[in-house]
Amino acid sequence: MTNFLFGRYLPGNSWIHQMSPQSKLLLSFYFVIVIFFANNLVSYGVLALLIIVVILLSGVSITFFLKGIRPLIWLIIFTVGLQILFSSGGTILWQWGPFSITNLSLINGGFIFIRFLLIIMISTVLTLTTTPLAIADGVQTILKPLKRVHFPVDTLALMLSIALRFVPTLMDEMETILNAQRSRGVDFGSGSLTHRVKAAVPLLVPLFTGAINHAENLSTAMEARGFTDSEHRSKYRIYRWQLKDTLSWIVFLVAGGLVLYLRK
Amino acid sequence: MRDPTMKDIIQVKNISFNYSGQPLLFDGLSLDVHEGEWLALIGQNGSGKSTLARLIDGLNVLKKGQIFVDGLLVSDQNVFDIRNKIGMVFQNPEDQFVGATVEDDVAFGLENRQIDREKMHQLVKTSLENVNMWEFRDRIPANLSGGQKQRVAIAGIVALSPKIIILDEATSMLDPQGRQDILDLVRQLKEKNHLTVISITHDIDEAASADRVIVINKGQKIDEDIPGKIFSNTEQLARIGLDAPYTAQLIAALKRRHFDLDKEYLDREGLIAWIKQLVSTK
Q: Alpha helices of B17-162 — where are they, by DSSP H?
């Protein structure tokens, strides 16, 4: 699992690292939508070329990157396999009971494989080059228009960043509770399903009460440091839209146009 | 010992308070904190020390009586001005770390006060340098020790340049080295910025280095004096369940072995000097 890259952040200072999180997030959404428009080999080729350039620009070596997403290949192969075996239409090449392989299902399966791969690649590049904090900030910037309809964007962003900050803390605590309960004879992870569910109670209850204590102390500490509400605050970090973002968007828009032009 | 020109920066006047559904914790408590002093508040668990700190900062609301902080009455209208004057460091280093990284945590208080970004970056840098944590600025709290987190908490307070720092058992979850480091750090900051420090503690040795000690028991102030006087009264300390400081214990042990010492309490240097003198006269 040590090489597993999905959802991890790798510090760096590449072109992609320096882009603003809001444009990276939006570009990833945009790219995923474009992927679903591609429907022949040439258009997929364009997208594959684009993603390779993106990975190169992120400063992660391609072999390291491919190794990092390899554990997910099994999931993709499983899905693609189901797709191939159960879809119908076209000339039948092989049939056995409800299972059949046709030339169309093979082509479809291949496309789904490429789609999956491209989506995983772009989202991995996003998380590899963006800190969780920056992603939270990016979400805040993107959702800003929702303020007009009185959606509490700033509060949501604050909650998101506190949640992200407490993930490792609560993981540590879970480990401690797990070991403490084990030392008192609780057996986690063996026995029947009902037994396992019952064994989770002495883990979950202290974890929840601990989280409530954290919340209470944290809110007191926040208040003592002058927190009134999440709207009337200045921001220490700012992620401005830069030239790099504009250039990247131009490249992505051109690629998107090309895909639309090349699709059948 | 008290400079008459010093004013009382905090005045607690005849306060009463109880948590809902519980008996009165304070009933007519009064005390003063002098400007520029290091005051230690000692007492058993449940004696009301931490509650008093929360009342001073306006985190809990008084039932009766008044508290003045630097001339301002603690009330709903003044509470934010008062929190600008007071920086609090709490017991659990994990629970007061709001930011995702060291830098963001120090900036949190500044963001709340809507400080301009350029000034904020500069303040964060100088305060982190003050506590020797600048090279840790990108770290997340999970990768810091307890002592380092408390340093960050102090930096977050120093950035706001308060007049008063309240340490609410801020060192109780640290090892002896971390505790000493934090106390030395606060002492330096106090001298440099002319702060008033209120240290709430169980640690008698920590209290022994204060300018003045107030002993609280069951919501009552039962004594206030310089540490030397307070710790001479070992019977009173024992009665309210507090330990005597190390030197006082050593003096008591020497007395049991029939060494003649007329004092109950001496600080470290005083005790060393006395033992040296004792050895040389023999």
A: 49-56, 79-85, 102-112, 117-130, 146-158
| DSSP three-state, residue B55 | helix
Question: Has residue B264 been placed in a domain?
Answer: no
- Domains: count for chain B: 1
CATH code where residue B32 lies: 3.40.50.300
Nearest to A158 by CA among A217, A219, A213: A219
Per-residue pLDDT of chain B (282 residues; tens, 9 = 90+): 445 556 788 898 888 888 888 888 888 889 999 999 999 999 888 888 889 999 999 888 888 889 999 988 988 888 888 999 999 999 988 889 998 889 999 999 999 999 999 999 999 999 999 899 999 998 888 889 989 999 999 999 999 999 999 999 888 888 888 888 889 999 999 999 899 999 998 888 788 889 999 999 888 888 888 888 888 887 788 888 787 788 888 888 888 888 777 766 777 788 888 888 878 876
**Burial class for B182, CB neighbours closer than 10 Å (0-12, 13-18, 19+):** buried
Q: How far apart are alpha carbons B67 and B65 in whole angstroms?
A: 7
- Chain B CB within 8 Å of residue A209 CB: no
Burial A180-198 (b: 16+ CB within 10 A, else e): ebeeeebeeeeeeeeeeee
| Binary contact (A225, B54; C-beta < 8 A) | no
Chain-chain contact of A133 with B101 (C-beta, under 8 angstroms): yes
C-alpha to C-alpha distances, A127 to A28, A143, B115, nearest whole angstrom: 11, 19, 31
Q: Is the Cβ pair B95, A133 closer than 8 Å?
A: no
Q: Which of A137, A162, A234, A235 to mutate to test the interface with B (most CBs of B within 10 A)?
A: A234
d(CA A116, CA A72): 10
0.90 surpassed by pTM = no
- Mark out chain B residues that contact chain A at CB-CB < 8 A: 54, 57, 59, 80, 83-84, 86, 88, 90, 92, 94-101, 103-104, 107-117, 120-121, 124, 140-142, 156-157, 160
* Domain assignment of residue B89, given as a range: 8-244
